[in-house]
Structures are given as structure tokens and as C-alpha cells.
């Protein structure tokens, strides 16, 4: 069995209704994924299944989510090895865990995306590592113009997690 991490882009179903993590686990297990578990209530799912292509798992989860919750959400999946590699690649280890985020991408970003995002940048440190975008807001996330610029239209399918969550998921894989 292989271990996978799935990140939901949004767990808001509408008008104050959010996905309950227990329901997400039940959905995943109903799709045949085993030992489903979550981390914090923001759409982070770990599970086990036979090794298979990431795109197949993403499609299965997205279809299952739409059937169960009545809404499509983008779901990014990484195998355990790739997630641990992502966790080891944080270029801003000196940053505060809640202020350093990574936008985990379905399709890798090229480093030149930093040029396109430069006009939104203030004091944020940014880097593209292995196709994912890392940003250190340095205690100024509430003041940034960067967050509204990180759209699916500009960057493609992806979802953001802070460093605390990245580390938490890596620790769960290690168990």
C-alpha cells in the first residue's frame, strides 16, 4: 500500500456550510481508500491505497467529492515521498510557520512566474521550488496584495498550505 496526501482547494460548500472532516474521511473510504485521516479542519487528507497514477486519484476524489457534497473542488494529490520532499524544500525555514505558505500546484510552475507576481510583491520573500510557490509573508499576510493575485486563472490549479500544516502532514506520514 502507498500513502498519499490530498489537499482540497476549498471546503466551503456555500452559505456558512463547510465540509466536516469526518464526512471527508467517510467519503474517501467509500471510494476504496484506506486508513483515511485528516489534519486540522481545512481539507487535508491522508490515506492509503494501491500505487496508481496521481491524476487517477485526483479524478476519483474530485468525482467522489462532487457526488457526496454536491460541489466540485480541485484536489491536489501527492504521494508520501513527494510530500516529504516538499516538506524538506522550504526555502524559508527561518520564517514563522503560520506566515510561510506553499502553493502546491497540480502542474509545476516555472521560476519566471516570480517576474509576473513582482508587481504584487511588497516585502514578501518568494521562491519556486520543484514547481511549487513558497512565500514568506513575514508577519504581514494581512497587508499583502499577493494573496488576491494567486488565482487559478493566473497560476493554474493549486492550493495553499502554511508551513505548520506542511510539517504536520509530514509527521503524519512518518507514523
Topology:
Layout: E1 2-8, E2 12-14, E3 17-18, H1 21-30, E4 34-38, E5 44-49, H2 54-69, E6 75-79, H3 80-88, E7 100-105, H4 113-117, E8 125-129, E9 132-136, H5 152-155, E10 158-162, H6 163-174
Antiparallel strand pairs: 1-5, 1-6, 2-3, 4-5, 7-9, 7-10, 8-9
Helix pairs in contact: 3-6
Task: Summarize the entry for a quick read.
It contains six helices and ten strands.
Bin the strand percentage. Answer: 25-35%
What is the residue-mean pLDDT, rounded to a whole number? 92
Strand arrangement across the biggest beta sheet: 4-5-1-6
Order of helices and strands: EEEHEEHEHEHEEHEH
Gross geometry: globular
SSE-based structural type:
alpha+beta
What is the number of E strands?
10
N- to C-terminal distance: 14 Å
Helix content, binned percent? 25-40%
Radius of gyration, taken over Cα atoms and rounded to an integer in Å: 16 Å
* Main sheet record: 4 strands, antiparallel
Low-confidence stretches: none
Question: Would you kindly provide a written description of the structure presented here, covering whatever features stand out?
Answer:
The chain is an alpha+beta fold and 175 residues long. The protein is 32% helix and 28% strand. The protein has helices at 21-30, 54-69, 80-88, 113-117, 152-155, 163-174, and strands spanning 2-8, 12-14, 17-18, 34-38, 44-49, 75-79, 100-105, 125-129, 132-136, 158-162. The chain has a four-stranded antiparallel sheet with strand order 4-5-1-6, with helices on both faces. The protein has a four-stranded antiparallel sheet with strand order 8-9-7-10. Strands 2-3 form a two-stranded antiparallel sheet. Helix 3 crosses helix 6 (163-174). The longest helix is centred in the middle third of the chain and has 16 residues, at 54-69. The chain starts with a strand and ends with a helix.
Amino acid at each position: 500500500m502507498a500513502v498519499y496526501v490530498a489537499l482540497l482547494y476549498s471546503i466551503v460548500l456555500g452559505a456558512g456550510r463547510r465540509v466536516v472532516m469526518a464526512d471527508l474521511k467517510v467519503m474517501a473510504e467509500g471510494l476504496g481508500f484506506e486508513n483515511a485521516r485528516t489534519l486540522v479542519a481545512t481539507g487535508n487528507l491522508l490515506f492509503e491505497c494501491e500505487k496508481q497514477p496521481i491524476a487517477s486519484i485526483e479524478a476519483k476524489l474530485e468525482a467522489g467529492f462532487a457526488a457526496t457534497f454536491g460541489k466540485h473542488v480541485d484536489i491536489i494529490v501527492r504521494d508520501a515521498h513527494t510530500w516529504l520532499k516538499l516538506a524538506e524544500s522550504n526555502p524559508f525555514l527561518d520564517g514563522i510557520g503560520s506566515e510561510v505558505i506553499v502553493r502546491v500546484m497540480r502542474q509545476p510552475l516555472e521560476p519566471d512566474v516570480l517576474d509576473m507576481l513582482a508587481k504584487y510583491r511588497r516585502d514578501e520573500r518568494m521562491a519556486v521550488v520543484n514547481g511549487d510557490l513558497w512565500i514568506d509573508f513575514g508577519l504581514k499576510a494581512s497587508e499583502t496584495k499577493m494573496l488576491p493575485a494567486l488565482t487559478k486563472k493566473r497560476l493554474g490549479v493549486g492550493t495553499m498550505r502554511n508551513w505548520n500544516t506542511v510539517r504536520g502532514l509530514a509527521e503524519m506520514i512518518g507514523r
